[in-house]
Amino acid sequence: MWTIPKPRYGSRGQGEITVNIGGVRVALCGDVLKRYPESRLAQLAKLAKCSSAQNEPLLASLCDDFDLGRGEFYFDRDPDAFRCIVDGYYAGQIHIRGGICPVCFVEELHFWKMEQGALDECCKSYLSEKEGELREIAGKVKAILEDAELERGATSGAGSYQRFQSFLWRLIEKPDSSLGARLVAVASFLFVLLSAAVMCAGTLPELQVSVGEDGGPGEARPRAEHPALEAMETACMSWFTAEYLLRLASSPDKWRFALSFLNLVDLVAIAPFYLVLALTYLGTASVLELARAQQAVQAHRGLGHCGWRQLFAQAIQQRPTELTDKLEATGVGWAATST
């Protein structure tokens, strides 16, 4: 057991109060408690100085019980967490000791009316990491509950279309739900790699072909991707398009799906390919200009795979500043290579 400092019941110091936290008695100096004047203990010490019958209702609102004759105030709280908080009054910063649940400690801070800004910097980072882990766990639990709700809806009086919709949603969006879903996820990932490889290979002059008519003297003929690369690119975009449409068709909430940020990114990544085809058919732009416009959006296509989309969302939540810096650097690289 511990005491900070050892209580003196016979001759109490000026402004000193004794608190009993879960059976552990601690004597506290009122001057030290003034470090955080808005805290529960500081308010208690201020009222204890001028104890009277009028102050008893206020004292009762600040503690679980009290004995004015002994000058002792009782709290049914965690003594280990309280020790960390008391150290903050003496040291100026609160440090979370090992073995204390961070969620419970935040509740203790709120009870004692202490701000999280009083925590040591290392403890602030520790709490942020734990809060992120808890949000991730909560998201997984929510996803499991949604899957269970879809499963119940698909098996309890639902028609064949609803059952097929639920099956298709799990097949495309839940890689861990079945062997078929894993195979679909692997296939999507392979198409992502193939699309990236085609994008890189299309920039090599050895794999480009000349298009259009001969230019004037000293002018080089325009060059475009090799037809074989275009065929592979078309196959990749056909897979991404089919995947997006199937996900949209099987989504339980189509408006929410369509307006989701990452799904909008998927749509923006797919749409330019068909814009290029339309402009080529209409003959409103040169092949070279269309190829450059298409290359400007090819880097987004990796987000078409559900696993890449989840990693991207986690990166935004956990490291927003670092991700912004990296995206800025990537944007400068794109601008340099496209000119």
Folded structure, characterized:
- The chain has 14 helices and 6 strands.
- The chain has 339 residues and is of the alpha+beta class.
- Helix 7 packs across helix 8 (179-201) and helix 11 (261-282) packs antiparallel against helix 12 (287-295).
- The protein has a 4-stranded mixed beta sheet with strand order 2-1-4-3.
- The protein folds into 3 domains: 17-119, Potassium Channel Kv1.1, Chain A (2-Layer Sandwich), CATH 3.30.710.10; 124-158; 168-338, no CATH class.
- It has helices at residues 30-33, 40-49, 56-62, 79-91, 102-111, 121-155, 160-173, 179-201, 227-250, 254-259, 261-282, 287-295, 306-318, 320-338; strands at residues 17-21, 24-28, 65-67, 72-75, 208-210, 223-225.
Question: Features of this protein?
Answer:
339 residues; alpha+beta; 3 domains; two-stranded antiparallel ribbon
Structure summary:
The protein has 339 residues and is of the alpha+beta class. It is built from 14 helices and 6 strands.
